[in-house]
Automatic annotation (TrEMBL):
Belongs to the DoxX family. It is found in: Cell membrane. The chain crosses the membrane at residues 51-68, 75-91, 103-123. GO terms for cellular component: plasma membrane. This is DoxX family protein. The keyword ATP-binding does not apply. It comes from the Bacteria. It is a multi-pass membrane protein. Its main location: membrane. Signal peptide: none annotated. Keywords: Cell membrane, Membrane, Plasmid, Transmembrane, Transmembrane helix.
Length: 137
């Protein structure tokens, strides 16, 4: 079963490109400029700015790295989607469709990954007893 699979290649492409985009545009700036971000971040759920920023960094740094590797892809897509929903629904309610298009695109891309999973081209450190690689979660 070493045949090329276009759907699996498409999931790989989507997984890597969407994750790199989130990592570079949102995640790394938050992580690298933590102190200034702590003063600037909105706290729409009233969890405290520290917890809100920590969750945003988890969603925009840790989860994309997991998705790039194809580890727990479906689960890792959910925090990115949640941050996008919070941004659109609570933080930036005044945004027009044009202004919110990046957040909508993230919802579409990571929603697709939450449904489709990692595909065949991924790191799967666990194996079933039959020697078959584990299914993506």
């Amino acid at each position: 079963m070493n045949r090329f699979s276009a759907p699996d290649a498409a999931l790989l492409f989507l997984r890597v490109t969407a994750s790199v985009l989130v990592l570079l545009v949102h995640g790394l700036p938050k992580a690298l400029h933590y102190t200034s971000q702590l003063g600037a971040i909105e706290d729409p759920l009233h969890l405290g700015k520290t917890l809100t920023l920590a969750f945003a960094i988890f969603a925009e740094v840790v989860c994309p790295l997991l998705m790039i590797a194809g580890i727990a892809t479906r689960l890792a897509a959910l925090p990115v989607m949640l941050v996008s929903v919070i941004a659109l629904g609570l933080v930036h309610r005044e945004w027009t469709l044009d202004q919110g298009q990046f957040a909508w695109m993230l919802l579409i891309m990571f929603g697709t990954l939450a449904i489709g999973g990692a595909g065949r081209y991924r790191i799967a450190p666990w194996r079933h007893a039959s020697g078959e690689r584990g299914r993506s979660c």
